[in-house]
Amino acid sequence: MPLLTSYVFTNNRGGVGKSTLLFQLASTYAQMHPHLNVAIFDFSIQADVSISFLGGTQEPSADTPKARTLGAQRMAALRPENTGPGIIEALMEAETSGGGGGGGGGGGGGGGLLGAFSRLSFGGGGGASSALDLRSKLVQVYKDGGGPDNIFLATGGVKLHEVLTLQNAERVAAMVAAALDKSEGNWVAFFDTDAEVTERPATLAAVVAAQRIVLPLSANWADYNRVVDGDPINSLFPVLRHRISNGLPCAKVDHVVFNSVKLKDSTPCGLHDDGRRGAMLPFSPVKNVRSQMSQMSDHMFSQGWEDMELQYRTIYMDDGSVNDEDAFAARYVQSLYSMPDNIVHVSALTGIPVCSMDAKTKYLDGEVKVDASALDKLQGAMESTVKAWV
Q: Which domain of life is it from (predicted)?
């Protein structure tokens, strides 16, 4: 059964909320699509999203020198073959045993990567001794409740450096995508990343493996400039354009999500001041923040569709459907306001995504309840964001 689509949360800057956004929005996506299998590939050595899905940042259940949080404790307790690095290692071993010999190309079911794939059975159970049941290797994180039970995790962590290099990153990316495409059931994948796109093998592999980019941005020009052209080696836009213009596999920007936007009130409003152009936001940001968001949106359009030298339009999905600033904003721009401290604190500590929280439950040993109105509004905002995704 197929891999229907895949998303990578990436930005060459750290600290913009990639892992938190993925944890919350991928969980919301899974809840809204219960008939799909949602795979989470944590391609970050920090493993923040793995810790979130495996129990959060609350204290571990027993003293252990390997973990300061429950999520980290549970990650350390996984069998090696059920970790992200272990899965990657198994895929590479399966390729070798299938006769690929670690080479490139090949075709028609012969040697090389494609030949190896043709002889592997991913998730189907049967077949050659080199078969790998990918679904059985992933961790079903909420099988006992606490979140959507259709989420399956491949953990991240420092051991990614032991199996991923800049030399094999693209090959591993192809293996992961092919494995999901041959797994039982319908799959959608989400990849978390670190910063430094071209210098981090795991981040590069994620950008190559995925089809669509969710780009978290802050409404800050200094941060925005670092993504567009601040670093000739790692700035995301030049990296994407280079790969695409040279025919190299690469995800394309599907959505730009302005994250942690300062909230004025819950009234929906237009992105631009005239209330007519472009995207409609599900809430009203404070005026100066909304102004910066609209200016950045217009700047992205200008660099993509009007700057004859840069021509960044090739890095976007569906670029042919866009012909002005309005259409650009409507197609690509989304926003999510700063999550209320009480709610995000409980979610981070417990590892329960916002979509699965309720206002009646007392969390953290029965000591904390969350505000019903604030929770309802935040859940609605997350659902509104995810509805636009494939």
A: Eukaryota
DSSP state of 81: G
The conformation of residue 52, written as its DSSP 8-state character, comes to: H
99 vs 385 pLDDT, higher one: 385
Cα distances from 235 to residues 46, 174, 289, 291, in angstroms, run 20, 23, 23, 24
Please give the full DSSP string across 305-348, using - where no structure is assigned.
II-TTT-GGGGBTTGGG--SHHHHHHHHEEEEEPPPHHHHHHHH
Question: Are the C-beta atoms of residues 179 and 166 closer than 8 Å to each other?
Answer: no
Q: Where do the H-state alpha helices sit in the chain?
A: 18-32, 48-53, 70-76, 84-97, 112-119, 134-137, 160-163, 169-181, 201-209, 221-228, 236-245, 287-301, 325-332, 341-350, 363-366, 372-387
- The architecture of the domain spanning 3-93+133-388 is 3-Layer(aba) Sandwich (3.40)
Lowest model confidence (mean pLDDT) among 117-131, 240-254, 285-299: 117-131
Residue 65 has a pLDDT of: 64
Rounded to an integer, what distance in angstroms lies between the CA atom of residue 269 and that of residue 244?
Answer: 35
Contacts of residue 203, Cβ cutoff 8 Å, sequence gap at least 6: 10, 43, 44, 193, 194, 195, 196, 197
CB neighbour list of residue 314: distance below 8 Å, 6 or more residues apart: 241, 244, 245
**In this structure, what token pair is assigned to residue 11?**
């930005």
Bridge partners, residue 191, by sequence: 8, 41
